[in-house]
Amino acid sequence: MALITTVHDALVQLLGAPKVSSATEVLAIHATDKWHASASPEAVVFAETTEDIVRVLQFANERGIPVTTRGAGVGYVGGCVPGQGGIVLSVSRMNRILELNPEDGVAVVQPGVITGDLQDAARGVGWYYPPDPASLRECSLGGNIATNAGGPRCLKYGVTRPYVLGLEVVLADGSVLRCGSRCHKNKTGFDLVGLFVGSEGMLGVVSEATLRLIPHPETRAMLTATFSEFPQAAHAVQRILNSGHLPSALEITDEFTLRAAREYLGPDALPEGNAHLIVEIDGRQAAVDNERRELAPLLEKLGALTVEHHTADEACESIWQLRRDFSYSLRHTGLTKLNEDIVVPRSKLVELVEFAHGLQEQTGIAVACFGHAGDGNIHTNLMVEDYQNPSVRAHADKALDQLFTWILGNGGVITGEHGIGLAKKRWFADAVGKESVATHAAIKAALDPKGILNPGKFI
Ligand SMILES: Cc1cc2nc3c(=O)[nH]c(=O)nc-3n(C[C@H](O)[C@H](O)[C@H](O)COP(=O)(O)OP(=O)(O)OC[C@H]3O[C@@H](n4cnc5c(N)ncnc54)[C@H](O)[C@@H]3O)c2cc1C
After folding, report:
1. Closest ligand 1 atom number to CA of residue 457
2. What's the domain range around 146?
3. What is the pTM of this model?
4. Is 34 a pocket residue for ligand 1 (Cβ < 6 Å)?
5. Dihedrals phi, psi of 356, to nearest 5 degrees
């Protein structure tokens, strides 16, 4: 208790009372994210400027106090959970878009800006910030940068990394590093921007970012198709790409998820079929019309039971809502959803789903698969009953061991979007190998020798 008072009081002295809290409910909110871990910090700081971050880090570094940076706190792997207590450094109040500049094709933002807000602002001037995590109405750009977030449209446009041109980062000792620039090409020195993107708050605190914008596509359209079996839908994904089409999104859904969706949304919410495919195309109006007319007969030829066209913007939006509802449908089952954002080489999609079904039979844990088929990034959800029960949790962990062993044995990766955090910590070394672990550790030691930034995670 004495320590809490000391850290809290010292921070109040440093920053002023409105920027610091140790109230029980504030500590509780900042103890978790959307995963299952919880650990209370001793104090929460609400930084409003880069200078606030500098002061907190200088203070913490001198005393060896852990600092865990938090964006919006909607991560899926416990990344912003302060496993070793100390200070949670929230950047949620640093939420201003500082500049929107179509002439340079850049936006300069503070880290707490909500992703969807930047997309809306860019759209307002005819420009586009493509990275589109499903959480975009809630998550922050700083969190996206720290996890290198992705989403459905990353098939065509790429994940967060290619949109980060420059960063201001406060290092563990409080020094301020500016790396990259506002230029769209830059090969000056090492790729330090790339080093910080995806570093999960362990190498520095992103206090400002210069992001790349591109012209907004004139229009979009969608085709949705159902198939009697998952392998037909997976085959269609390959054929679409091999026919020279690059849709902005290719989303596949398996039978378990469709059953849950029909239960949650009503039996008529989806046409018949045990696999579902969403194909989104965007670009100039004439090109989108032509491409849609070419793709529909291709899907029919590949055995689609139904093919539906969606051309108006609202119609496309309602299909994305349906896609989001797949997630809510799984939650509605009442089972705990362990959402594993694994990735396989695209040629292994069918094998992955066959393995997942085998795992379900062997363990008795239902497995639901859906996601970004074009990237081979299939969210494989273990649906667990009574997850709080320790023996059930151990059983689920064993099933995850089997899943990740299979993934790594088949050239896949254990996370494509969410990061390692706490959730995937025990598989990190197997996933990257000992030389890579040592390289990670050397970089961490160089930038954060006292190990104050987000300690207890995967390094
Ligand atoms: C319903 C739902 C859907 C989702 N869909 C997707 C999806 O499609 N794609 C995807 O990629 N993710 C998805 N996620 C996961 C999550 O939204 C992303 O990981 C997102 O990037 C987290 O942002 P955040 O602001 O909430 O970060 P937080 O959870 O606050 O933090 C995440 C990590 O980033 C670090 N961090 C945060 N801000 C900073 C900063 N300024 N400087 C340094 N480090 C920082 C934290 O320390 C932590 O390690 C989803 C989550 C939910 C709940």
Report:
1. 49
2. 97-215
3. 0.96
4. yes
5. -60, -40
